[in-house]
Automatic annotation (TrEMBL):
Locations listed in the record: Cytoplasm
Protein name as catalogued: Ribosome-recycling factor
Lineage: Bacteria, Bacillati, Actinomycetota, Coriobacteriia, Coriobacteriales
Family designation: Belongs to the RRF family.
Keywords from the named record: Cytoplasm, Protein biosynthesis
Protein function: Responsible for the release of ribosomes from messenger RNA at the termination of protein biosynthesis. May increase the efficiency of translation by recycling ribosomes from one round of translation to another.
Residue span(s) of domain Ribosome recycling factor: 19-179
GO CC terms, sorted: cytoplasm
Length: 181
């Protein structure tokens, strides 16, 4: 396998990893600690992720428990979560914050599926762009004969098809997870 194809494979793998990271941020009826990854708290003048200021536990399927290591930052964490676009109302008991995850309505689940399809399409486009770049590089390599070019194009296409299939499978699994009540 040529360097161009190996390079394309690693870039396609990164596209798939990005898709999975985007999917992990989509809020389903289950409590997922990754929904807090993007929330930042003003901690002594520095924007710090919640996950660096507190332990995040999942005591039950529909609840997250945020326990800050420094109790003085408890109210700031609560405020940051409340101001985020999660749509969750945190409850503060003085030492920790509870985040109940109510099951989303049918309409909200359909919107979430739509978002997931958008993420999947972005990943497909990214994979196709990697394919285009790899094919262009193969064509520019002077030592390749026409047969070599054709053979490597076929390998790149096979690789592209396999990653598009992985993206579709990931989307199907996420759709099932979101639509589950």
């Amino acid at each position: 396998m040529s360097d161009t194809i190996n390079n394309a494979k690693s870039k396609m793998e990164k596209c798939l990893d990005t898709l999975k990271a985007n999917f992990s941020k989509v809020r389903t009826g289950r409590a997922n600690p990754h929904v807090l990854d993007a929330i930042k708290v003003d901690y002594y003048g520095v924007e710090t992720p919640v996950t660096q200021l507190a332990g995040v536990k999942v005591p039950e399927a529909t609840m997250l428990l945020v326990e800050p290591w420094d109790k003085s930052v408890l109210n700031a964490i609560e405020k940051a979560i409340r101001n985020s676009d999660l749509g969750i109302n945190p409850s503060n008991d003085g030492s920790s914050i509870r985040l109940p995850f109510p099951a989303p309505t049918e309409e909200r689940r359909r919107e979430l599926v739509k978002d997931c399809k958008g993420y999947a399409e972005e990943a497909r486009v990214a994979v196709r762009n990697v394919r285009r770049d790899a094919n262009g590089k193969i064509e520019r390599e002077e030592e390749n004969s026409e047969d070599d070019v054709r053979r490597e194009h076929a390998e790149v296409q096979k690789l592209t098809d396999s990653y598009i299939k992985k993206i579709d499978e990931a989307l199907k699994a996420k759709e099932a997870e979101v639509m589950e009540i």
